[in-house]
Design a protein that fits this description.
binds phosphoenolpyruvate, 2 domains, binds manganese (II) ion
Length: 333
């Protein structure tokens, strides 16, 4: 159950609600986000909400049957739009595109990508400066100095930055230089990281865990929302299955299912979703047709020289063709 409170509600109201609900064995949690004030009541007993609905300071009450609450679409009529500033928004009905290299590699790589994005009217650039790599001997990213350089160049060119944060200790240093924090598939259930991102007033895109279920992804989002941060995006990036012909199995089912279950924008990552350069465009198109609010994909001036994920990275010609196809598909949809 979600009880929406009027802004500035004082403790006495919260106590009154608790007094009414605790005899019914409801656990009550107070959630204060950048946009709202809520009491989440978790319990099983049915009761007449009129018993508390009349209390001054209560805006609305919603009975949500899901075990996640605030991210559920069962209480929020309109879909969430995540604003990044400068008229850039995700989830507002415009299909969003984010693109860039797997890893940020240096000045030339940043500039090449920015030029490509600008030529194609894309204003969000992806790239990792902290890279979760299966082998400790692989390139692990340029770190905070790389992010600062990227930020300077991106800002000069009105490009927004989405990049992965791998641990709590990185958040503070990264904060001023990112527009969207990305939680990687290996960290979807790093609850300490999720708790800490809940305290930030910056958008967060949470990727689905490598072997994670849709339900687990929604619960991870609930961690951040209930921690105080409503500015969330969810990302389907493929899951591990028994199939060996592709890096991951992009779960197309997840797109309409998530669209139904949550009011948060859903982003598709076809690059990691299939992991095969030749087929990234097919998966991106499928995800758009299935109702995704946007895509994030890997592109590089010379994919064969990319520091990571070469096998799934589009060159700029391929990426340009995909962007055109997505734009045309957008019109049809
Ligand atoms: C990435 O986006 O480069 C990345 C490492 O993704 P994932 O966490 O989905 O593997
Ligand atoms: Mn990658």
């Amino acid at each position: 159950m979600i009880i929406q409170l009027e802004n500035g509600t004082d403790e006495r109201l919260i106590q009154k609600v608790e007094e009414k609900l605790s005899p019914l064995k409801y656990e009550v949690t107070h959630v204060k986000t950048q946009f709202g004030d809520y009491l989440i009541g978790m319990g099983k007993k049915q009761f007449d909400i009129r018993g508390i609905g009349h209390l001054e300071g209560i805006k609305d009450i919603h009975i949500v049957s899901d075990d996640y609450q605030l991210v559920s679409s069962k209480w929020k009529v309109s879909n969430t739009v995540v604003h990044l500033g400068d008229d850039v928004a995700i989830g507002c009905g415009n299909f969003s595109m984010m693109a860039g290299p797997c890893s940020i590699e240096g000045e030339e790589n940043i500039m090449d990508t920015i030029n490509f994005l600008k030529a194609n009217n894309i204003n969000i650039m992806r790239g990792g400066v902290y890279k979760p790599r299966s082998s400790p001997y692989s390139f692990r990213g340029l770190g905070i100095e790389g992010l600062k350089l990227w930020h300077k160049m991106a800002k000069e060119n009105e490009i927004k930055i989405i990049t992965e944060v791998m641990q709590v200790s990185q958040i503070e240093a990264m904060y001023d230089y990112v527009d969207i924090f990305q939680v990687g598939a290996r960290n979807t259930q790093n609850f300490n990281l999720l708790d800490e991102l809940g305290k930030q007033d910056k958008p967060v895109m949470i990727k689905r865990g490598i072997s994670g279920t849709i339900n687990e992804l929604l619960h991870s989002a609930e961690y951040i929302f209930s921690g105080g941060n409503e500015r969330l995006l969810l990302c389907e990036r493929g899951i591990r299955t028994y199939e060996e012909a592709s890096r991951n199995t992009f779960d197309i089912n997840a797109i309409p299912i998530l669209k139904q279950k949550t009011h948060l924008p859903i982003i598709a990552d076809p690059s990691h979703g299939i992991g095969i350069r030749d087929h990234v465009d097919a998966i991106a198109m499928a995800a758009a047709a299935a109702g995704a609010d946007g895509v994030i994909f890997e592109t590089h001036c010379r994919p064969e020289e990319a520091f990571s994920d070469r096998q799934q990275t589009l060159d700029f010609a391929e990426a340009g063709r995909l962007i055109n196809k997505l734009n045309r598909l957008k019109e049809v949809i």
